[in-house]
Amino acid sequence: MDAFSYRCPTRIIFGVGQIVALSIEVPAAARILMVHGGGSIMRNGVYDQVQSALSRHQVVEFDGIRPNPEYEDCREALEVLKESSCDFILAVGGGSVLDAAKFIAAAACYDGEEPWDLIEDRNLVTEALPVGAVLTLPATGSEMNGNTVISRAAITQKRALCHPALYPVFSILDPATTTTLSPRQSANGIIDAFVHVCEQYVTYPAEAPLQDRQAEAILLTLIEEGPKVMADPENLTARANVMWAATNALNGLIGVGVPGDWASHQIGHELTALYGIDHAQSLAVAMPGVWEVCREAKQAKLAQYAWRVWGLHGLGSEVAARQAVARTEDFFRSLGVGTTLAEYDIPVEAADLVAQHLSQRGVVLGEHQSITPEVVAEILRLRA
Amino acid sequence: MDAFSYRCPTRIIFGVGQIVALSIEVPAAARILMVHGGGSIMRNGVYDQVQSALSRHQVVEFDGIRPNPEYEDCREALEVLKESSCDFILAVGGGSVLDAAKFIAAAACYDGEEPWDLIEDRNLVTEALPVGAVLTLPATGSEMNGNTVISRAAITQKRALCHPALYPVFSILDPATTTTLSPRQSANGIIDAFVHVCEQYVTYPAEAPLQDRQAEAILLTLIEEGPKVMADPENLTARANVMWAATNALNGLIGVGVPGDWASHQIGHELTALYGIDHAQSLAVAMPGVWEVCREAKQAKLAQYAWRVWGLHGLGSEVAARQAVARTEDFFRSLGVGTTLAEYDIPVEAADLVAQHLSQRGVVLGEHQSITPEVVAEILRLRA
After folding, report:
1. Widest Cα–Cα separation across chain B
2. Contacts of B352 (CB under 8 A, 6+ apart)
3. Cα A133 to Cα A40, A90, A137, A138, A244, distances in angstroms
């Protein structure tokens, strides 16, 4: 286990009916910019619950946040925030809305002309306005971490920013808000959380048995509870377990002191930036390819994962590692999510285009920093 | 899973050589009261490392904290703190030193004559001075929670106080500081952490599969890594894994949304207050008794624990539950810790005395609030 520093100051308020807690969690004197997507929360009652809880607060709304939050939308929200002198941002929605809120919160404290600078150089982030969240889609883990991912269509980029100033002050997780998610949203969320765990777990042995088992705990929960929410969207118990698993997948705890891969995410971000596929779809395509190409380097952990998570005791390491890749892809497909480029009408030329993009930024990926742009192209050609 | 609210703002700084971080973690202008036990840290180099890291800080020392921190010692430290106008408390040592520091921190902000009031009524705690820690004994989890346990010999009491103001600002965990622990200290720490997990896990099924598996992750780690540190005290990898497991055992995460038992702790506190045995010894005596007497009520979880943690697949629930109790006691004994009253020269009359004590405070224990003082007496008679 390597040395690490860990701090996660976010308060999690979890349970059915907890949105009312907004009335006390947001300071009474706050001028709130409420950001949301203007869609599902208007139909499923969440918007009304939030309005009711904040009836004594000053609230300004910005409802233009789309999935894979777009830089220009964040800039627009920032203008609204400044015009109305808001000093608190409330995100109501999924990870995209939360990520947008975090970016706006940091941008509001940045003096430069172009907030994109913060993406290019995280050292420019010094502080951020306080952000609170009402989460309605378990997936990204953004509710309990200091990460944000922002897209910028004009330059075909989708980029992450991680900074301690970006932890939400609080996040309210009411599993009842997730029963109206579409099958596609539910499946995407399960896969996103699953891959977050894998990025921190399927690397190489690091003599960190607790982190390994904590990672396996989350994977097993997603494998058991995920299909239950797909089969019965109203199963509140399963919804609650998936929601809490997704939060634990990326609150940083399973990643302390161990290597991280994140190649699938970086490749996935490029696919989304270029072709507009959902984040989870991009991961379901990329990760089996990363594992296949890096199967020897990852063999010890892939085999451990096969034995402990898929119960494939008795298989030798090499066979177990192969099975681990196949079982994972099967699991994604069982949730109704395609795992090949063709299923999303993405041509095989994507392989070279993504490689070229990463090459331009000088990025080399993976826990061994061995996944060069050429290897990325090889990975994606396997996923045609 | 029940509704819950969770927040743990402590920064953990983990790794060999991390004590130097004190120089930046403690504010430069702080007037530090450094509390410790005056014993092992003087011999194992920790004292010197702390002094060196704080060479530019103002530090006043109080070295009179004993195991099972005594209220009168805390009062004495409080006088020193007030005389020297300290505004930051640094605990250097194990859970006892940390618990004392937390209590002193709260007492320093209390206007009443008798800080024991805070133990009797936690609502009297409003704030506390900031506390930082250098942990040298993995056991209590105090480094990442808002709990303190204080003893008061004059009234033969040992009592817990839990409050959000008591979270350390930071805790430095350097596993190298634990290689000089005695076998008794090492074994005690492993058992303390193990029982912390059991108190939150061996209750009744609560449809919280993630918390269950996170609990099992910690237990499995302690079972695998604990014997390694007993066999080879200098095994830094195992020391690190035990240390991190002990922190995770009581940072609150595995206990969210699920019932807690804590009967073994309350019974154990009485045994320590009355007979002065080590905290972990008291738990090693009490918990097998609690499980034996509550075996039917706990059968589902005891069996799950037997199957998943001890690998006793194939056994029926009832047999598995019996085996779970036996295996656990065997594990404690394998670490060299006695599990009966007789081994600590405690007479069987302790059973009635402890019951009487709890009865005076009107306390009923267990996740079903079914362990009356009469049941406590029955439990302890089994442990003669």
Report:
1. 64
2. B377
3. 16, 5, 11, 12, 15
Nearest C-alpha neighbor of A249 from the set A147, A324, A336: A147
Measured between beta carbons, the chain B residues lying within 8 angstroms of A257 are 14-15, 244
Distance CA B70, CA B157 (A): 10
Long-range interactions of A341-346: CB distance < 8 A, separation 24+? A341/A285, A341/A380, A341/A383, A341/A384, A342/A384, A344/A275, A344/A277, A344/A281, A344/A285, A346/A271, A346/A275, A346/A277
Tell me what pLDDT residue A52 has.
98
Check B3 against A11: CB less than 8 A apart: no
Residue of A nearest to B219 (CA): A210
ipTM of predicted complex: 0.97
- Is A68 in a helix, a strand, or coil? coil
- Find the helix or strand (DSSP H, E) in which A223 lies: helix A209-231
Minimal Cβ distance to B210: which of A4, A5, A248: A248
For residue B140, give both structure tokens. 């209590």
pLDDT per position as a tens digit, B109-132 = 999 999 999 999 999 999 999 999
Domains and CATH numbers, chain B: 11-177 (3.40.50.1970), 183-382 (1.20.1090.10)
The answer to whether B272 and B245 are in contact (CB under 8 A) is no
Residue whose pair of structure tokens reads 């891969």 in the numeric block: A261
